Each structure stands twice: as C-alpha cells, then as structure tokens.
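Anyone? Bumping this.
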Amino acid sequence: MSIRVKDLVFSHKNFSLEVSDFSFDSGKVTVIVGPNGAGKTTFLKCLGAVLSIPKNAVMIDGQDLAVLKARERARLISYVPQEQDSAFNYSVGDFVLMGRAGYLSPFALPSKQDFAAANEALDYVGLRRFAERSIGELSSGERRLVLIARALAQNSDILLMDEPTTFLDPKHETEVLNLVRKLAGERKKTILVALHSLEMAVVYSDVLVFMKQGKIVASGPPAEIFEARLLENVYEMKIRVIDWDGRKVVIR
Amino acid sequence: MSGQANSRQKILTIVILSLPFILFLFSLAIGTYDISPGKVIRTIASVWHPHSRQDLIAPYRDILFRIRIPRLLLAMAIGAALSVSGASLQALFKNPLVNEYILGISSGAAFGAALSLVFLGRAFPPQIAAFFFALLAVGAVLLISGRTESHFISLLLTGIIVTAFFSALLSLVEFFASPYVLQSLFFWLMGSLSLASWKDLSISLPLIGVGLSVLLLLRWRLNVLSLSDEEARSLGIHLRREKLLVIGAATLVTAAGTSVVGIIGWIGFIIPHLVRLMFGVDNRRVIPMSAVMGASVMLVADDLIRGLSSFEIPIGIFTSLVGIPLFLLLLKKTKKVWL
Amino acid sequence: MTSRKQNFNQRTGWFGFMFFTVLSLGLFPDSATGQKQEFLLKDQLQRSIVIPARAEHILSLQPEITRLLLALGAADRLVGVDYFIHRNDHLFKLIHPAGADLPVVSQPDGSVNKEMIARLAPDLIFLSPTEQQVPDAIERSLGIPVAALASMGRFSGLLEELELVGRLVGKEERARELVHYFREKVRVISETIGALEETERPKTYLAFWSSLIRTPVFYDPVTVAGGQNVADRLLPSRLGTASAVINLEQIIKWNPDVILIHGSYPPRERRVTVEGILADRRLGSVRAIKDRQVHYTLGFWYWWDPAGVLVETLYLARLFHPEKFSALDLGREGEAIYEKFYGRTGIFRALMKILEFDEWTSK
C-alpha cells in the first residue's frame, strides 16, 4: 500500500497546507509532529479525503483518492479523529459496528460477517467485555481504544490517527502506542499518527515527519533527524536533546 | 453483541408491536354514533355475508367503512410518519431535540397546501405544493444555519425564522382569498383528522408509505449519519446523497400528512424520545418502534377526541399541550452541551 | 344545562334591551342644556359600554348593522365600512351602489386601521362579536365606544338592534315601522303553520360556513318556519359566535330530514354543494339524502340582512310545509320585502340570479 502525495494544497481561512512531494512507506508507522497550527490534523484529514482535495494530489497504489467512491475509500483508509462526542449514547458494540459502513449499501443491515468483524476488532483492543456498555460510561482512554477498534473494523490497510494520546495518562498512552506498533507489525498496516509528545514520537515511529506552518520541513528515521537544531527551528524556542538510558529526552 | 435484546426488552417489543392492531380494533367501536363491538363485528362480517336488514346496518357500514376506518388509518399513518421523520431528523442533525416542526417543515408544508387549496381548488392534490414548500423550508434552514452540525440554538432560531416567514406568506394567501372561504382553512391549520376521507388517503397513504419505507431501510445507516460529518465521510458514507435521501423522505412524509390534516406538532419529538428511553438509541430499533408507537399514540389521542364529545377538538392542540412542556423539561434536563 | 345556557344567552339580549330602556327612560334628552345623553349597553361579548344617545357619525364594521342603517334611511351617518361589505358582499352592491365610495377601515384578517378611524372621528363603532379582542383594543387606543353587536341568529336580537340603531340616528319612526312589518310577516307565517307537534317539525341540519361540520346553534328562521334545528342543544364554540363544530358521525346520528347548505357564497366559491352532499357516500344512510332534501338557503352573510332573513323564512316555511304554503309566490313576496326595507325594486331578483337559487324563484 503506497501513499504518494503530490502537490497537495488545502486552504482554509488564514491557513494553507502545502505538501509538494511526499511518500509514505507501507507497513511502517509514520509519526507527524509539529507545533500547534502546523497543519498536522489538516494533513491527516486530507490524506483521508475527509476534507476535499484536488485531483491527483493523493495517490494510493496509483489510484486517485479524490475520485474514488466513498465506500472504496473507506475500505482503503480509515481515519481516527482526535475527539468524539456523539450526540447519542450508543453501545460500544454498536459504535464499532459503524465501522462496517463501507461494506454496506445505504439500505442494507449489518450481516453476520459485519458483526464478526466488529467483535474481532473489539477483541484486538481488549475491550470485548464492554460491548454492551454505552460509550458515555467509558473513560477517555477506553474511548480512544474504541475509536481505534472502529477503524479496525473497517479493515483498511491504512490507518490515520489524529493525536490518539492527547489527554491520556502515561499508562494509557503507552497502551495505545503499543497497539499501534502491534498493528503495523502483526497486521502489516500502514499507520500515520499525529502526536504531540516528541519523546513518544521518537520511540514509536519508523519515520518521523516534522511540520511547520503547513509544510513538511523534515522527515526521516528518528535516529537520523531528531536533533536540537531541527527542533529549535520547528518550535522556535531554545531546546536541548539529551540521551538518557538509550532514550532521547527533550529539555526546554 | 448488541444484536441481542434481553428478555424484558423482548416482551416490551412484542407488546408495543401489537399495540396498533389492538388499538385499531378497539377504536372501531368508539365514536359519537353508538356502535357496540358486537355490531362492529357483524357489520364487518356483512361484507362477506350480506345482512338481512341492509337498511338497518347502512349507517353502521357508512360510518365504519367510510368515516372511522379511513380516519383511523390516517391517524396511524400520520403518527408513524411524524414519529419516524422526527427520529430520522434527530439522527441527521445529531440532536435529539430536533423535529420536523421546529425545522419549519410543517409550516412550509402547511403554506404549500393552503396555497394549493385556495388557488387550485380542492380537485388538485395539495400534497405536491406541500412537499415543494416543505423542502424549501428545510433547505432554507440548512442554508442559513450552515450545516447539520450547527448548534441547537442556531437551528432553533433559524427554524423559528423560517416558520415565521411561511406564516407571513400564509397570511398573504389569506389576504387575497375571500374570508369565508378561508374559515375552513383555519380549522384545518390547527391540525384535525375530522375531514379524513378515502380521497385524501388515496394520495397521502402511498406517499407516507414510500417515505416510511425509505427511512425504515435506512435505519442502521442513520446511526452512522448521526456521527460528525467528518467521521461519517471517513467511514464511507456519501454524505450529500444520503443526507438528501433522509431529508427528502422525512419531508415527504411530513408534507403528505400535513397537507391532509394540517399542522400536528411535537409528535416527532415526544415519540422518539420515549422510544429511546425504552429501547436505547440504536436506530435499528428506534425507527420501527417510533413508527409503531407513533401510530398507537395518535390512535389513543383521536379516540379520546372522538369518544369524549361530539365536538371536534383539533388534535394539534392536544399534541402541543403535551409536547411543549415535555420539550422544556427535557431542555432543562439535558446535560450535554447542545446549546 | 344546555337549555339553561341558551336561556341565559337569550336573556342577555333581553337584558341589554331592558337595561338601556330603563336607563334611558330616566334620561330624557334635555335639548335646552345641549347635554349629550348617554346610556349603558351590554353587548354580545358581555362588555358594558357607555354609548351616546344620538350618533351623527357611525363607523359600522358589522355588516348587519350597516344593512340596518341603510334600511332606516340613515346611510348618510355612515362614515366608513368594513372590508367584507366592501369587497365580498354582493348584496351591498345591490342595495347601496353609492356605498362603494365609503372608506374601508378594516382588513381581510379583521384588523383595523386605527389612524383612519381617528381621522373619521365616529361617535360610535359597531363590530362583530366574532372579533373578540378587537373591541377593547380599539376603545383603549382611540377612546371611542365600540359595541360588539349581532343578532346571533335570533329574530329578537335583530329587532333589538333595529330599534337601537333607529334610536341612535333619530329614525325611531322608521324603525318602529320596520319592526312592525317584520313581526307581522312572522305572525302570518306562524299562523299559517299553526300549532305543531315535535314530530311534525322536520329535523334540519344546517351546514354553514363552507363546511360540512360547522353549524349554527341558533337559527330562528328554521324554527319559525316550522322546522327544528338539530344542533340547537349544542353550545356555541365560544363567546361571540353562533357556530359549533361537530363531527361527521353526529350528523348521521341526528339523521336529519332536511339539510340546508349555506348558499350565500357565490356558486363558484361554494365548497359544500348540494351535488357534493348528495354524492357523499358517508352520509348515504341519512334521511335527507335518501329523500334528496338537500337545499341551499341564504344563511348568514356576516350575520343577517333583515329582508333576506324574512324571505328565507318564507322559503323554508314552504319547504317544510308545502301543503300550507302552496299559494305562496316567493318571487313576488321577495321583491316586496326587499323594496320595503331598501326602497328599491329588483334587488331580490338580482340576488337570486347571483346565487343561482332556482328553487326560490320558480313557483
């Protein structure tokens, strides 16, 4: 599953995103970092065609994402939003089941197959026992996992995750990111994650991408590109990076 | 999975599903003209086994087959139509407080029907103009308030404005038509089943049937549509097409109903709410149960009107008296930030 | 309960009459001092109003009163009329063609142009009791007395109005003459009919106001003509109106012998028609339909026209008791009655032509 971005432009109010040429490696975890307003969310949404994109800007295995039908798109790419505030308090099971929409025509009801896929997704994230509970009863960490489960139920090869760990405590943060790595490893999924935390980004990414003001300023394996000067450039502040027990730690 | 209901819900489901049928039979014996259940049965049986005294049962036959049955069918159809339309719109607009009444669909339909009745006469079906203007109304609301995800206050205000606009247009129609002709229009506008006839039903029932079928088929899809637009899109929904489908169907059933009985408000709000309290928020159950409960509630309300007096109290007044306090109560209790 | 309420309403009419009679007896006009005398009146909305003993300028927004003014020969006192008389009343055009120039003060929805009223400066305003909130609103903002009067479907009410308006415009003589004429006509009809058993009175249902299910609770012409209004035990739907709304089954339950349709609507505007009712299969078991006794009658046209209601009573008397009225020439009688009230010939004929009342003009 190769993702090729070419001349992707998206403008909204005072902000504009410009990515002229970029490729994502399949089967790898690519983490996108950058300051607030850098365009991480916008970039992810464009990659998932959640926002409207120009033709030929995003090509998946040679197919133009912009012209694909919604259902086909959903089977290729799933998008896990940062926040989820449903007006209705669905049960966890029903919620994950919605991930199967791409496999159903508008007038169809979910089949045994769909139920099985949803169950499997819940199993994978370890929340099967919550299937009958309503979303509102869950903690925010558990809700994030449910969102991921829904994306898994979509059974797409590409997963886009927008800051899945924001507001999570360290334990849950680690849980989610471990899951991400597991998906890439076991299921060979191509995963793009936008993260806030630089340290986590370094640890969990195969490829690290830095964004600033709507553009990609640097990308590559973290070991190669993660250093203080780049960080200072991107975040416009004094930063030091130190090695601690094999880990990179950022000092502000 | 959530496909399994526990036994209590199963019993409740069976009871509710059988309600309309039981109520229908029961309602046949209610009315100003006393027809005992025994006579009802004999009169219905006389269709296959002609009665010896045809002249004696002629009033019973006329009343049962030409007055009560069409009226009961209409009541059930309207109840189901408004409830399902309300539930669908609530899912689409991602807000359980929304309904066809506050979105201006009802007033658009009323205006269209009035316009048609006054200028094109009774011979021309008012449902067509009603549908057209109802679509215009909801289109205006969408256009002005921005998206289906607007804050509730913004939707409510826009709905009020659109309703006010169509009310003003209605006044204009009244201005140009002769006053006595419009006496009957006033009564109709209050929402009344009193003039239900097979002729009206022959157009409205099929239209309601079509709209209801569409919404029923879309019941699982409504779950997905109730998510944010971005989520729905990412899950593989062709948003514009499916939203239009839902809005079109909801507007169709509302317009078909309103053009025959006038404005009956708040059913589309009360019923889905009650159903969600009993059966949860999954639209696979909310939609069909709303239809069934809506039909039952309308039957009961109409039975009360017909049974209690020989006067015709417009049913729209009934539903408003119950619906508005309930609405305010729920508004107060709502903890989430729709507002 | 119902009959008590009915009597009360009846008495209210009488009460108002008695009240102002009593008061005005003690208030003989003192022309020497030039004082404007007043008396107290209770109108159909249960409002007590102080009205002047004489009125030079009358704004009549109540078509019935307008017609009475014309009959009294006091058209010059009219400063303005309402929208209905101006736009929809085919009768008015016949009896007072010059009236087309009168200022129109109200609008189709019943609201009034207060500025215009202030400019016209009437001494008194008449309004229909069906406009419930308007009388008080006008009085409050303009300070002119407003009386919500109507016959309410009763001859007594109509005659009281006639006397009151006659007194107001100084045409007591003429008023007396007309009242006497009216009463005489009614007396002759009653005598011709003679004493009737309940069973000899045809049960009559009146489908008025362009609706099958809206019916007047009070309608004297039917009773005086020797019939019985099946709805007369009902209460009017609210204060100030004579109508009640019933459901369809009630009509079948009553099983009337005759159905009368409100025929003052021009033929192309009628929503309820004789053909329509005869063809309505829901009512197939009703006696009136089986016997094909479904007819048009004048009915209210924003209350009554005194000539019209007399002719209507004659028509109904002949309809209900044809054997007693075989000698009646309705065409001639109609012409005479209209001429008596409005001083012109040909009104009845013209009206019958507009309404296409073939039964009324044929012998």
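Late reply, but here is one note on the structure posted above: Confidence is low (pLDDT under 50) at residues 1-9, 11-16, 21-35 of chain C.
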